[in-house]
């Protein structure tokens, strides 16, 4: 039996949104679910973007949540997440989404879709994702297409009449956990301090509490002079890592990494490939590129 449920693992980022657009183009939206996990630390604009995406597609958000934040998971597991190992992603995202799938979208009826972006680095993640999602079939329609930079993907979102999440505009490569992802490197943490200092201070405070509990642990590591040692956020701040010149460098480096232009805007316009006359294409022709689509009247569907 072929799958008639199409469950997009929607992260609130541009990759998973454009994936949902492609799924809608291929299969319509009647059997589509936009499944998103709430980590309780997302940037508030992620939810604005998600609701705009939901309204554009005419598909309500299905929100699942563990109920904890990444910090609470680290306390409970007596382990501080870092760039090598981050239990928060499994506990707060993978497990709630999988539990919803098991109950509502069994593998013989459903296909999962993941928003892997069309570049070599992201495509390398596909085999592990396929393994992790067994026994479901997983598809990656965006990655199947031609290579595109982050700036080009952002331009596609704007072309559809939707304002991208503000973290991209601020120079972050991803729109997850409010820019304070424990898997990010020093560069992103410096950038967070420069752009969203309150959020950095909160992470710094939480890390200090965990260090009091667990000892000399840290999210980041210092690898200078041939040795590796913990680098707490407090020490990164104390290094004067956000001198004005460094802020400028950090912004431009992040922008380069995410292929966003120097103003945070895409370098050139590009449009997603849509079937002429399709329901999605007709929505684009009536959408204004400078305003957000009308919000859905009802609140998103709540998951478990
Ligand atoms: S985005 Fe980062 S901090 Fe958030 S759950 Fe995933 S690994 Fe953890």
The CATH level-2 architecture of the largest domain is identified as: 3-Layer(aba) Sandwich
Strand content bin: 5-15%
Structural domain tally: 2
Question: What is the helix/strand order?
Answer: EHEHEHHEHHEHHHHHEEHHHE
Number of strands: 8
Give Rg in angstroms. Answer: 20 Å
The secondary structure category is alpha/beta
Task: Give the bound compounds.
Answer: iron/sulfur cluster
CATH class of the largest domain: Alpha Beta
Distance between the termini: 27 Å
Percent helix range: 40-55%
**What topology, given as strand order, has the largest sheet?**
5-4-1-2-3-8
Q: Regions with pLDDT < 50 over 5+ consecutive residues?
A: 242-269, 288-304
**Mean pLDDT, as a whole number?**
86
Profile the largest sheet: 6 strands, parallel
For CATH, the homologous superfamily of the largest domain is named as HUPs
Task: Please give a quick description of this structure.
The protein has helices at 14-27, 44-57, 70-77, 87-104, 120-123, 126-133, 141-144, 150-159, 166-169, 186-195, 197-214, 233-238, 244-257, 279-286, and strands at 5-9, 32-37, 61-64, 110-114, 137-139, 220-222, 229-231, 301-302. By secondary structure, it is of the alpha/beta class.
Question: What would you note in describing this structure?
Answer:
By secondary structure, the protein is of the alpha/beta class. It has 2 domains: about 200 residues, HUPs (Rossmann fold, 3-Layer(aba) Sandwich), CATH 3.40.50.620; about 80 residues, no CATH class. It contains 14 helices and 8 strands. The strands form 2 sheets. The protein has a 6-stranded parallel β-sheet, sandwiched between helices. The protein has a two-stranded antiparallel sheet with strand order 6-7. Helix 1 links the parallel strand 1 and strand 2. The two termini are about 25 Å apart. Bound molecules: iron/sulfur cluster. The site of iron/sulfur cluster (SF4) has 13 residues, from helix 4.
């Amino acid at each position: 039996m072929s799958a008639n449920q199409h469950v997009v693992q929607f992260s609130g980022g541009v990759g998973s949104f454009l994936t949902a657009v492609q799924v809608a183009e291929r299969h319509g939206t009647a059997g589509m679910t936009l499944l998103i996990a709430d980590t309780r630390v997302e940037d508030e604009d992620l939810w604005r973007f998600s609701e705009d995406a939901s309204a554009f597609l005419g598909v309500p958000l299905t929100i699942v949540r563990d109920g904890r934040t990444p910090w609470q998971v680290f306390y409970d597991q007596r382990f501080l997440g870092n760039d090598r190992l981050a239990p928060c992603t499994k506990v707060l995202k993978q497990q709630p989404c999988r539990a919803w799938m098991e109950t509502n979208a069994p593998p013989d009826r459903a296909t999962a879709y993941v928003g892997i972006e069309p570049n070599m680095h992201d495509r390398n993640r596909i085999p592990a994702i396929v393994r992790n999602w067994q026994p479901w079939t997983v598809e990656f329609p965006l990655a199947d297409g031609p290579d595109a930079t982050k700036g080009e993907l952002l331009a596609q979102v704007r072309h559809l009449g939707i304002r991208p999440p503000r973290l991209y505009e601020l120079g972050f490569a991803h729109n997850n956990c409010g820019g304070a992802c424990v898997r990010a490197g020093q560069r992103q943490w410096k950038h967070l301090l420069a752009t969203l200092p309150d959020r950095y201070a909160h992470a710094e405070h939480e890390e200090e509490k965990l260090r009091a509990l667990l000892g000399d642990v840290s999210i980041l590591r210092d690898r200078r002079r041939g040795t590796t040692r913990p680098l707490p956020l407090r020490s990164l701040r104390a290094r004067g890592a956000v001198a004005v010149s460094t802020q400028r460098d950090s912004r431009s480096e992040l922008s380069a990494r995410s292929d966003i232009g120097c103003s945070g805007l895409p370098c050139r316009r590009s449009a997603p490939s849509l079937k002429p006359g399709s329901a999605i294409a007709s929505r684009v022709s009536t959408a204004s590129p400078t305003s957000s689509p009308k919000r859905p009247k009802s609140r998103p569907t709540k998951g478990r």
